[in-house]
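TICKET: design request
STATUS: open
ATTACHED STRUCTURE:
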């Protein structure tokens, strides 16, 4: 499985976690099984990223909040967009993946899964995050 496909599967898992607030090992394994993910590298990537994102959840949410427009709050953002932003910010801050690749792929996922205004919104938040870095 290509990294972009693995990132899309990771996004779907993160979205489920945002909705269900459930992040047990069993839940992750069920997600992998239900989505018929058989590639060991993809499974390792998804598990590693979920654990990392969960461990940095508060920090990621603070970064998102700090990069929103004035008078916007995290709870105003759709769970899809929160999952995409957490994925992107974590990957930009804690992996070697070039930020341009991360932003491009997350914006593409927003085009596919979120509302019409989401790609521009996510791009703006991530541009602000990268500028701080």
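STATUS: resolved
RESOLUTION: sequence designed for all positions
ATTACHED SEQUENCE:
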């Amino acid at each position: 499985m290509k990294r972009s496909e693995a990132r899309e599967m990771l996004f779907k898992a993160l979205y489920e976690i945002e909705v269900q607030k459930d992040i047990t090992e069993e839940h992750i394994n069920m997600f992998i099984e239900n989505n018929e993910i058989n590639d060991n590298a993809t499974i390792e990537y998804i598990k590693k990223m979920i654990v990392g994102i969960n461990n940095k959840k508060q920090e990621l949410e603070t970064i998102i909040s700090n990069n929103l427009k004035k008078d916007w709050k995290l709870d105003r953002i759709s769970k899809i967009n929160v999952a995409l932003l957490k994925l992107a910010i974590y990957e930009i801050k804690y992996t070697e993946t070039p930020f341009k690749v991360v932003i491009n792929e997350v914006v593409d996922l927003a085009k596919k899964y979120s509302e019409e205004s989401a790609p521009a919104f996510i791009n703006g938040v991530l541009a602000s995050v990268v500028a701080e870095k």
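CLOSING REMARK: The chain has one domain: 3-132. DSSP finds seven helices and no strands in the chain.
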